[in-house]
Amino acid sequence: MGSRVEILNHGGYRSDGRRQYELRNFDIDFSGSNSTADGYCTVTHGLTTVIAFVFGPREASQRNLTMHDRAIINVEVNVAPFSSNDRRRRGRGDRRLLELAASIKSTFEPVVQIHLYPRSEIDIFIQVMEQDGGFLQAAINATTLALINAGIPMIDYVAAVTCGVSSTKPLLDLTTLEENDVPHVTVAVMPKTGKVTLVTMETRLHVDRFDEILNLAISASKTLHLHMRAAVRGYTTDLVRAMGSTGSTGKEAAMEDENMDVAI
Amino acid sequence: MFKIASFPPRVQHSITAVKHHPDVEADVLMDLDEIDDEVTTKISSPGESLTSASAFMRYTPEMADLVVGRITEVKPILYYVLPRKWKVDVNSRQDAVLHLASVNLPGGVQRRKLESDELQMRTFFEDGDLLVAEVQGISADGSMQLHTRTLKFGKASLNKRNGQLVTVPPILVRRLKSQFYALPCGVDLILGLNGYIWVSKHTREQEQEGEVGFDAEAVYSNKNDVIDTATRIAIARVTNIIRILARFFIPITDSILIGAYEWVLDQECDVKDLLQDENAEALVTAIMSQT
Asked: Which of residues 112-141 of A touch B (CB under 8 A)?
């Protein structure tokens, strides 16, 4: 922490020019699906970029782990060595990554309808391309969208956001600079029901502040959800239009479009 | 982000938005009142739940569907108990099962399966072999059994011979009058309803028919015929057209393929250049204007 950075200046601006409650640029991209993955999504929060690939539901690779009444979810996180300031290679067994993978897994287990796919496996691979704070939130948002892209049924979206407190003032969507300096919480929310599926905190935070920033994070997640939903809807509409574009299948596609409107 | 020049995304779509906390500013494009409680209540089956299931899902089997699959595992007798079966990857949520009893073996269609057949299972289908089969049954947990009993399938299951496999999203393959097509360019096409499409050299009609002449050697052989360059190019061209259609999410039918093939010939476009963005887009616009 050394020479301290001013987290929130007198004018109410943060180091990157945002205000207290302002989120960073949020970018959703479904278009790079060159891979063989069933679902794919790139999510960018400011300078943090995360790609999620979803494979499955498919035949489980480890037979002994399969469950007869539901699918298993398998999460692997990989951080590109060039993603952050200090170039560093993290192996597969890296403790921190394993922990992140485990928390992503437990975030999605109650949301994904795994009971529909007995004896199957859903693989989620997360690739971190750029890191500037909020890596977990980006990973969770990317995973939600990739799962939807893969057509895997869920009871709700999961939208996540990081929230911190700088001397009693709550801040949303922290950058690395802020994360190093400020106690913060990452919250994952199911926006429609308002249920929280994940809260993680690696720093110490005064208990009086907790309630406030939890609620702030929940409402911010709901804002993110609207954009995620808009993106999914836009993408789906594009696909349906493409399918109907060759004439013969137009009617069918239109019907599907209707169904999707209800479904999404 | 990264982009590989020769193989660009299938449908361009991305959204960028600067987001704020609702207290700061609402630049949100959606109206909240649409969010329906229906969704959370009627989530009993994949078709009804939150995702646009039908558009993106993996293959969901239905009885008597024609599928193309790849053997993932051979399970011969184990301690003299049941499994004499193959496991087949059919792009579904689980591997399908092909029992030894559900394939045609040399020496007569209705013959009893012997122990020697079990021992030779790998001579019929080995790991990695491709086959055409029909869905025979679906069990309660969603896994399916296949059969290749009809000679047509048996014959068509010419393992890894004379062709190439393309994978597309299953929804793009429609149920048509037949899933077998011989395109005028000398290429045979098998549209598996699971999204696996087999593109191969044309085999003559009389070879495909005739129960008496069931030649196990030929059916289960893995050796390629001699294929001339023109046919190879034709196969590659059809494959690339299918890839482009899949990328732009256009349903694949024989008539569209024939139209596209002719268009490509007119353009005198090199097969490998076909996948490039501008060529692919031109192809798609041409197809759309045709219909």
From this structure: 113, 116-120, 129
